[in-house]
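pls design
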């Protein structure tokens, strides 16, 4: 059989399969709900992250998708569309104790910090039971691949990165658009931001932190609609998050100082 005939048959077979794929779209996933999916964390790797030295190519300052294992160059950065913001107070057991899951998660309106105290040489907020509280800013985002495909993820900022969080929030609130009734603040998921990483330090150590830059409005209707749907899922409580302690799979993305 000639090569041209083989190529033609292969192309015909590929088209037939594609037709079947489209016709059977979504088959097999019928019984799955949000409880059956893991929302990826987009983590900032530090020198103490387990992946550094164990995963090929993983270096401090890179970003890691906790589900797919994909690594992103911190200097090159990634494009994200923020969809929702939730701040929480998360209670953890001391390092090395417990399952690595939060003991309790308090809403931003909680007065739990009034029940905490500092210990000498430690900036954490401790409860009398020995556990500590982390003020945590959660950003539900769509990560936009180089091919323009949006994928949901969660970015958490705490400790030294809360200053970056406040800056990002102010940046998002400052965006204004001229409408038929005057200027208005567009939805959070209407804008694209570039996230990169930068080396930081203080008298207690060195780490990597986030840098955020707005690059412009979302131009793709598909990305906008996907981001809007994700925001609505977060708002309705359908998106479940399984937090891990900084001693867990990849470490949290804020410095422990």
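designed seq:
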């Amino acid at each position: 059989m000639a090569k041209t005939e083989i190529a033609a048959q292969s192309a015909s077979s590929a088209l037939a399969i594609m037709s079947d794929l489209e016709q059977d779209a979504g088959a097999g996933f019928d019984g799955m709900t949000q409880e059956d999916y893991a929302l990826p964390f987009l983590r900032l790797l530090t020198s103490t992250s387990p992946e550094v030295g164990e995963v090929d190519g993983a270096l401090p300052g890179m970003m890691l998708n906790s589900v797919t294992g994909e690594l992103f160059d911190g200097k090159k950065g990634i494009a994200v569309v923020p969809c929702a913001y939730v701040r929480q107070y998360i209670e953890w057991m001391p390092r090395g104790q417990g399952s690595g899951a939060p003991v309790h998660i308090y809403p931003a309106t909680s007065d739990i910090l009034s029940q905490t105290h500092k210990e000498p040489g430690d900036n954490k907020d401790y409860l009398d039971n020995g556990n500590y509280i982390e003020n945590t800013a959660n950003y539900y985002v769509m990560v936009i691949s180089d091919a323009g495909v949006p994928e949901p993820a969660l970015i958490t900022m705490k400790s030294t990165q809360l200053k970056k969080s406040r800056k990002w929030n102010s940046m998002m609130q400052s965006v204004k658009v001229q409408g038929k009734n005057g200027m208005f603040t567009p939805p959070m998921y209407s804008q694209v931001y570039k996230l990169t990483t930068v080396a930081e330090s203080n008298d207690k150590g060195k780490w990597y932190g986030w840098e955020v830059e707005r690059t412009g409005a979302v131009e793709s209707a598909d990305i906008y609609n996907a981001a809007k749907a994700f925001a609505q899922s977060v708002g309705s409580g359908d998106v479940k998050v399984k937090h891990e302690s900084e001693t867990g799979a990849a470490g949290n993305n804020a410095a422990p100082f």
